[in-house]
Write a structure and sequence with these properties.
The protein is an alpha+beta fold. The chain is built from one helix and four strands; from the N terminus they run E-E-E-H-E.
Length: about 70
């Protein structure tokens, strides 16, 4: 059995962190200094929020948005 979760992340340039900007997981809110650190935090948090049994495979779609503004 598997569970699919979609998480959208964005960069906060003022705080210098990546954060969860949108998700289909109710209550998911976190941030981290790097996208990789955020990616590593998410599975455990999602399992806790959804009360997913650890033996259930979690398929995570992570989408990141970085605005690129140039003058």
């Amino acid at each position: 059995m598997s569970r699919h979760a979609v998480v959208r992340c964005a960069w906060d340039s003022e705080a210098a962190v990546w954060y969860v900007s949108d998700s289909d997981v109710p209550g998911l809110a976190t941030e981290a200094a790097s996208l990789e650190a955020l990616r590593q935090k998410l599975p455990g948090m999602i399992e806790d929020l959804l009360a997913v049994v650890p033996r259930v495979d979690l398929c995570l779609d992570l989408a990141a948005h970085v605005p690129d503004r140039r003058r």
